[in-house]
Amino acid sequence: MKPGDRVKKIRKEAGLTQEKFGERLGVSKVAISKIESKVNSLSDQMCRSICREFNINKEWLLTGEGEMHTRRSTDLIMRLSDEYGLDSLEIAILREYVQLAPETKKRFRAYLTAISERLTTADEDERENS
Questions:
Q1: Which listed site, 45, 63, 64, 73, has its alpha carbon 20 to 30 Å from 36?
Q2: 4-39 pLDDT, tens per residue?
Q3: Under CATH, what is the fold of the domain 3-68?
């Protein structure tokens, strides 16, 4: 397996199209396609960006040796799991959230805030009508 194959594996695991994967890295769909199809090699800058954005072990990305993900993200999530007794769904939610693009996180927080405000308003209305 070559670095381009591993880039595709990372993208697929993240559930992203080439376009969305490229957006998270600040490059075009075409740039990702050329890396995955091995037309272009993986540059140092792109390697660093992928590793940082997706918590990927650089050695694994370049050579296939070692663990795919960095221990830092895995260890932190597992420590949170141990401390707060998280179940597998909660762990999966955390893993997915930390991998979201900043703009997606912002929209997600706005969505949750809107839900919270509606619930608070409904609770207040219920108390007033009691």
A1: 73
A2: 999 999 999 888 999 999 999 999 999 999 999 999
A3: 434 Repressor (Amino-terminal Domain) (1.10.260)
